[in-house]
Amino acid sequence: MKILVTGGMGYIGSHTCVELLAQGHEVVVLDNLSNAKPSVRQRIERIAERAVEFVQADIRDRAALRAVFAQHRIDAVIHFAGLKVVNESVSQPLAYYDNNVTGSLALFECMAEAGVKRLVFSSSASIYGDAEVVPVREDAPLSALTPYGRSKLMVEDMLRDLGRSDPAWSVALLRYFNPAGAHESGLIGEEPGGVPNNLLPYIAQVAHGQLACLNVYGGDYATPDGTGVRDYIHVVDLALGHVATLEHLAKAATPPGVRAYNLGTGRGNSVLEMVRAFEQASGRPVPYRIVARRDGDIVTSYADTTLAERELGWKAERGIAQMCADAWRWQHTPKE
Ligand code: NAD
Ligand code: UFG
């Protein structure tokens, strides 16, 4: 298949491009490089030993999108492009609604015009809000707590309405839990600008000596060791989940409509478990101190992955030891 990957130069997108190419698919990346470096393209090509078509453009630019659909016979779209920093979305809500909602609207309109109705959308477990029941199933109530989460929920709603209006659409809403780790080559990974917000990049920088100490946000939660519990999924497993999803959509005899799937491991790990796993993987100490809870944090979140296993034939295989080892290798990679 020839796949248009929006945001394909970013963290999850770049790993997905590598796995798509490894499975023999062709890839056209459209990315505005607002949160990625141009050199990612060469790194993807180096790992995959194949070429990647790249268009530097914004998903809100309908003319650029139309040109891509006119130039290439696209079989399906994987839509990663968007802004993703939760606390930034609180201070800049309009930028988030514009990029994530208006941008998605422009993309879907251009897909409809071009007759391309097969789509994989990057959604987020944040749309479960503070789920009452864990593991979280796809039919749990949806409620976002931040503009970022609401932007994802709005796009999911838009796609559910689109699917109701036209049964020719095949759409998978992939709700990621906590993506972490990097490619085992050490060539691609997550590159947060400034001080990282997410746990694993922060721990990696502490182990590396760039940051002095991890602030653990809360030590008195109702969890086994008092710290928050999340479902950390290796980014390569996540990438493979996208390939499995596309293949599932492509082989369906009739378009399967709009379906949501959790992509997680089904296991939860605490902050302190992640600290210990990283210390082991890196052989370096990770000093930490317990501080006040972070505003808006939930206590425990991990996925029920039954649906993805059953319908997509996909299951995460890598554990936190490998995730930390790969994140540590990536931490050492010279970045330009
Ligand atoms: P990322 O920032 O690394 O990648 C996003 C890419 O999209 C970047 O390369 C950026 O340059 C590009 N982009 C942003 N806005 C664009 C626009 N308007 N037009 C064209 N390109 C644009 O983020 P990521 O971690 O790879 O996340 C990918 C997707 O997955 C996002 O939609 C994000 O919301 C979602 N997601 C991420 C996480 C996570 O923890 N990383 C969790 C759940 C969901
Ligand atoms: N944590 C710390 N110290 C830090 C950073 C994080 O103790 O410096 C803790 C948090 O309190 C939480 C856990 O580590 O218990 C994970 O925090 P992250 O910020 O890495 O991840 P979140 O689960 O808070 O948020 C992530 C993504 C969001 C997404 C959400 C739900 O960053 O985009 O998962 O899918 F919305």
Short overview:
This protein has 336 residues and is an alpha/beta fold. The protein has 11 helices and 13 strands. Helix 3 (62-71) packs parallel to helix 5.
Determine and state the CATH class of one domain.
Alpha Beta
Span of the ends, CA to CA: 33 Å
Strand order in the sheet with the most strands: 3-2-1-4-5-6-11
On the 0-100 scale, what is the average pLDDT? Answer: 97
- Mind describing the biggest β-sheet? 7 strands, parallel
Helices, by number, come to 11
| CATH homologous superfamily designation of one domain | NAD(P)-binding Rossmann-like Domain
* Second-tier CATH architecture of one domain: 3-Layer(aba) Sandwich
Q: Structural class of the helices, strands and pairings?
A: alpha/beta
Approximate strand percentage: 15-25%
Question: What is the CATH third-level topology name of one domain?
Answer: Rossmann fold
Question: What does this entry look like structurally?
Answer:
By secondary structure, the protein is an alpha/beta fold. It is built from eleven helices and 13 strands. Helix content is 41%, strand content 17%. It has a domain at 2-180 and 233-264: 3-Layer(aba) Sandwich (Rossmann fold). It has helices at 11-22, 40-48, 62-71, 86-91, 93-114, 147-165, 199-208, 235-251, 271-282, 306-312, 320-332, and strands spanning 2-6, 26-31, 53-56, 76-79, 118-124, 170-176, 178-180, 214-217, 229-230, 232-234, 257-263, 269-270, 288-291. Helix 6 (147-165) links the parallel strand 5 and strand 6. The model has no long low-confidence stretch (mean pLDDT 97). The relative contact order is 0.15. The structure holds nicotinamide-adenine-dinucleotide and uridine-5'-diphosphate-4-deoxy-4-fluoro-alpha-D-galactose. Nicotinamide-adenine-dinucleotide (NAD) binds at residues 6-7, 9-13, 31-36, 58-60, 80-84, 99, 103, 122, 124, 176, 179. Nicotinamide-adenine-dinucleotide binds at residues 6-7, 9-13, 31-36, 58-60, 80-84, 99, 103, 122, 124, 176, 179.
